[in-house]
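Example for tutorial group B:
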C-alpha cells in the first residue's frame, strides 16, 4: 500500500471558494486506485470550521478509503513549543480524531517538517510516530515522481509502504498521471 499524505487539510489560506469540494475531488482521484490510501493530515482548529467535511472523512474512513492522521492542533511550528504544550496539543488531536472518525491516529506529521528532540520524545510517550520533513516523497521537484520515472524506477516498489506528500490544492492533473502509472 502507498499512502497519499494530504497535508493542511482545509486551511483557509488556500483561497478556494469551495475548499470542501476541492478536497473531495482530490480524494475521489486517490480513491480510484486500489494500491493507495488517502491520509488526510488533520489540523484540528481548521477542520472544525467544515463540519460537512468531518462527516465526509468519517464516512470515507469507515469505508477504508481514508486514514486520518495528525498534522497539529494548529498550524504552528511545534519545534518552538515546550514539551508540555506539545503533549497537550497532540492529546487534543488524538482525542478529536478518535471521537470524530473512530480511529486512533498513529502518526504526527509535523507542520513545516519540524524536528526536535522534544517533539520526538513527546511522540514516543504517546505512541505516535513522528514524521518530519526528512522523508518526503513528492510528486514534483528534484526528488519527485517524474524524475524517478525518468530514472527508470518502479514507483510501486519504491513507494510501497511509504507516504507521498501532497497538499489538497496542488496539481491534481499531475496526481492523476502519477496514479495512472502506479
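The residue assignment follows.
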Amino acid at each position: 500500500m502507498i499512502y497519499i499524505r494530504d497535508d493542511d487539510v482545509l486551511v483557509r489560506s488556500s483561497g478556494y471558494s469551495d475548499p470542501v469540494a476541492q478536497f473531495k475531488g482530490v480524494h475521489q482521484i486517490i480513491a480510484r486506485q486500489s494500491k493507495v490510501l488517502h491520509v488526510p493530515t488533520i489540523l484540528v482548529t481548521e477542520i472544525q470550521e467544515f463540519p460537512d467535511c468531518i462527516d465526509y472523512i468519517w464516512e470515507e474512513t469507515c469505508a477504508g478509503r481514508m486514514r486520518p492522521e495528525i498534522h497539529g492542533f494548529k498550524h504552528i511550528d511545534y519545534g518552538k513549543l515546550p514539551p508540555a504544550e506539545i503533549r497537550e496539543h497532540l492529546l487534543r488531536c488524538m482525542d478529536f480524531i478518535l471521537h470524530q472518525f473512530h480511529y486512533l491516529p498513529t502518526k504526527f506529521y509535523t507542520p513545516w517538517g519540524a524536528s526536535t528532540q522534544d517533539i520526538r520524545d513527546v511522540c514516543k510517550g504517546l505512541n505516535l510516530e513522528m514524521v518530519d520533513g526528512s522523508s518526503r516523497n513528492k510528486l514534483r521537484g528534484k526528488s519527485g515522481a517524474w524524475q524517478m520515472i525518468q530514472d527508470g524506477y518502479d514507483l510501486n516498489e519504491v513507494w510501497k509502504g511509504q507516504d507521498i506528500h501532497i497538499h489538497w490544492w496542488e496539481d491534481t492533473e499531475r496526481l492523476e498521471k502519477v496514479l495512472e502509472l502506479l
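The chain has a mean pLDDT of 84. Compare this with the pattern of hydrophobic and polar residues in the output above.
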